Amino acid sequence: FNLDSVDTEAPRPAPKYQDVSSEKPQAQKDQGGYGFAMRFKRRNWHPMAMPKENEVKLKNDDWEATGLPTEPKKLPLKQESVISKVQANNGDNNIYTSPYLTQSNHQNGNTGNGTNLPKNEVTNYKDFKYVYSGWFYKHAKQQIDFPNKIAQQGDDGYIFYHGKEPSRQLPASGNIIYKGVWHFVTDTKQGQKFNDILETSKGQGDKYSGF
Q: Disulfide: which of 27, 115, 125, 136 matches 180 by Cβ 3.0-4.6 Å?
């Protein structure tokens, strides 16, 4: 997960492989050896909101440590606890997850028979062994309070990755080819749409984060 454009970097002069301490990460580049999560954004789209929220950006400070999991295929406990307490919309208290973790009702989800593969899935590259990533969310209750100029809606959840024994450093030279699943989350911006990959009719990317 990176909030910046993907650019190639010149090889670093450090040794190809180097021990990394287990201290608290001090920079985003340290995240490879830890579990991290980022919560979805919901924009206050009330036309008279003060201050007006035309956009809610993702920031590096939004990353939350998950702690190393006892079982990578399970959701990060700390963040799952947060979402479990979110007030649900229409009484639906289910927490929906990435297709390969459990069966999902998300529009990119897998029905379990292979007939509705996720749009971001590459065939034969979901047998994860060391690092798991994905998202989970709840259909959160709309917060409509016009007297106080508050209007928020959309799913509330997290995107995350973690693992038992993840690689903490890539080789300093050579080419790396990744074949697998990309998980992403967007910021929110008035009028923003991603018609090819998101369900924009519900406001994904506009009123709340697309994922």
A: 125
